[in-house]
What does this fold into?
Amino acid sequence: MLRTVFSSVSFMAIATMQDLLELDEAARMNYPSTLGGNWSWRMTEDQLTPAVEDNLLDLTTIYRRINENMVELKK
It folds into this structure.
C-alpha cells in the first residue's frame, strides 16, 4: 500500500505513522461513529527504529519525493 501511495502522480503523498510502523488495527486513531476515545494514539520514541527510517528514506528516494534540504540536515 505504501508503495502505491508514494508512486502516485499526486503532488503530495501522505501516509500514517501506523502504516509506516506496520501496526495493526489496535493502533487506530479514529473509530467512526463513536463518541470519545478518538485521536489519542501516540507513537513512542522507540518505535521509530533505524529500519523504519531507512524504509521511509527508500520510499521517498525511489519515488522522487525526497526533500534534499532535509537530507542535508540529517548528515
User: Anything to note?
Assistant: The radius of gyration is 15 Å. The helical segments are 2-7, 17-20, 50-62, 68-74. The chain has a mean pLDDT of 88. The first helix runs from residue 2 to 7.
